Request: fold
Amino acid sequence: MVSAIVDVAHELSNRRRESADYVSALWAAHQCLLAAEESELLHRQVVLAHHGAGDMEALRAAAARLARINEGLGGGVDMEAETAQLLSTLLPKPAILR
Reply:
C-alpha cells in the first residue's frame, strides 16, 4: 500500500514540477514523506523542485535532512546512487582557493 502511495505522490510531484508549479510539487512529495520518510524517490522530487525554483538553501537543507534520515535507519544506510549523483550534479562545488 505504501508503495502505491509513493508512486502516486511521485507522479503528481513530477507533473507539477514539469509544469513549473514548484509549490504543488513540494506539497505532493512532502505529504507522502509524512508516511514514507525514507523514500529517496520522493526526496529526489523535493531536491529537483527546490532546484527548479532556484532555492539552493532549501536544496541543501533537503539534502541534509535525507542524510540525517539515512543515518538513523538501522544504524545507517548509504544514499542511493541515483540520489548521490543528482546531489553531486545540482549542488554547487566549493571553490578551491590557490
